[in-house]
Structure formats: C-alpha cells, structure tokens
Amino acid sequence: MGYAQLVIGPAGSGKSTYCSSLYQHCETVGRTIHMVNLDPAAEHFSYPVSTDIRELISLDDVMEELGMGPNGGLIYCMDCMEYPLFLKKTIGTLKTIWMIGWMSNWRVIWMMTILCLIAQIELFTHVPVLRNFVEHLKRKNFNVCAVYFLDSQFVSDVTKYISGCMASLSAMIQLELPHINILSKMDLVANKKDVEEYVYFISPLFKDSTILLCINLLMFSRYLNPEAQVLLSQLNRQMAPKFGKLNKSLAELVDDYSMVNFIPLDLRKESSIQYVLSHIDNCIQYGEDADVKVRDFDPED
Ligand SMILES: Nc1nc2c(ncn2[C@@H]2O[C@H](COP(=O)(O)OP(=O)(O)OP(=O)(O)O)[C@@H](O)[C@H]2O)c(=O)[nH]1
Ligand SMILES: [Mg+2]
C-alpha cells in the first residue's frame, strides 16, 4: 500500500512553499517522504525530487521545438503523463523505495509520496489526463487524496473567495478523490494592516499582537466553514442587484455540498503543518496497515 497527496491550486497559492516546508517537517520528525514533480514548467526546487516529469519533457523544449505558446505547451506536456514510460518510472521508483524500507524493517515503511502538480486549473478541469493518472495510481494500490490550496488573501474579496470555492468544488467533482482544502499564507492574515488599524481604532488595548491574531482568526473562521447566509449577504452587498438570484444559487451550491471547508495553514508554525498533515493522514488512512506489516515481518516475532 502506498500513499499520495496531490497538491493542486491556483497559481501562486503557495503549493511549492508548502511542499518545501512539508519536506523539512518530515525530515525533522523522521518520516519518509518522496516528492514527484509533475510540473514541466518548474525551474528549481528547494527539496530533492525523486521523479521529475521534466526528464521526459520540459515546457521550454516544447515551446522551442513545436513553436507552441506557454499554455498550449503545458497541455501538450501534460499529455505525456499518459505515457506508459513516465507512469512506469514513477511507480517503479516508489516501489523500489518501498521495498528497501520494507526489508530493513523501518518503522517508517509507511510511505507518503507528494505529487506536486501544476497550478493551472484547466489542466484538471479540461483534460482527463490527471484523472487517468490518479486512477492508475489507485490501481497500483495507492491511497490518494487531493490537497487544494487557496491563498488567504482571497478572503478579503468575497467574489474571489467564491470563485476559489467553485474551483475547489470542480476539482472535487472531476477527480473524485478524498479532498482537503487549505487556506494558505495565514501569517499574512495576522499582519493585515487595515484590520490592525480598525481594531486599534476600537480600543488601543487591542494593539497586542496575540489579541489581533485572535480577532483576525475569528473574522476568518466564517470563511473556514462558509455559511450560505453570510456568503449571500456579502455577495449581495458587493454586486449589482441583478446578480441576486445567481448569488443565491452560488451560496446554496457551496452550502448543499457541505464539503467546502478550509484548514488554515501558517507555515511559520510547526504545529500548523503537523495539524494539516494529521488531516491528510486521516483522509488517506495513512499507516493504518503499517503496524500490522511491521509486526508481521519483525524478526523477533
Ligand atoms: N507570507 C507568505 N508567503 C508565502 C507563503 N507561501 C507562499 N508564499 C509566497 O507566495 C509566492 C508564491 O508561492 P509558491 O509556493 O511559489 O506558489 P505556487 O502555488 O507554487 O505557485 P506556481 O507554481 O507559480 O503556481 C512566493 O513568493 C512565496 O514566497 C506563506 O505561507 N506565507
Ligand atoms: Mg510552484
């Protein structure tokens, strides 16, 4: 049994930074983790990559040799993920690492692989390649979950926030995977200048940064588990009356699914990464079978 998380989300939402922090966290706590790069446009990584799609194809080569633009080039590159070679290489590498861990009877034989995906939403909503890739992983006994990133700055504008919720919902429906939403860059929330000034205006006592953070988080909590009524009133306030019916339908859609909720991530805090990881572990049932395997193959038994 293998485990994988698929890191997806809009451009600049913090996917690569998360992967880097997660890698460091796992190194610190002695947990095995392997990064697989599926981004043909990636330039550099701050963590070691076990398998890299760029060894097969890179965006620069496609643009240069086929004369394609960056977006068409990306779609072309993504088609390569269907190539048996890459699939074989990815799964082959992972199986090898798994076997080494298994034979030396590590406690950490429970392996988790991160598949770091490109940002453009069209790549999983418009083409079936990612879904096929995930299906293949599942057939090879991988528990896979999607980890969708949304920048916390989106929360400052309810129209952006609702579009982020819709994109997340779309990924859920397209990929049909256990799904976790992350509200990234929460450190920026604590520093938000306008909220600081507003709160200070109410009472200078609130200047204390811990209190500020608490107030900010309280204000944010409504976005972590969005409620239809709150979303609707904010949308209606911001948009022209003719959009009233559309706003109602959108807010109800988020509410009906009751699946769009967010886990805050503040990368400055180790506990926050641990918290996110524990949700992911729970989602993919990480390690549930590992104890049994360790016992089965323990030479002292
Ligand atoms: N303050 C803060 N900045 C962050 C955080 N995570 C990412 N950033 C910044 O946000 C920018 C984008 O982060 P990336 O990790 O490259 O985002 P990405 O989703 O991988 O972006 P693409 O691969 O281009 O789609 C960078 O300038 C990061 O330094 C965070 O938790 N806090
Ligand atoms: Mg990136």
Automatic annotation (TrEMBL):
The keyword Ligase does not apply. Keywords: GTP-binding, Hydrolase, Membrane, Nucleotide-binding, Transmembrane, Transmembrane helix. Gene3D superfamilies: P-loop containing nucleotide triphosphate hydrolases. The keyword Transmembrane applies. Belongs to the GPN-loop GTPase family. The chain crosses the membrane at residues 108-130. Binds to RNA polymerase II (RNAPII). This is GPN-loop GTPase 3. InterPro entries: Gpn, Gpn3, P-loop_NTPase.
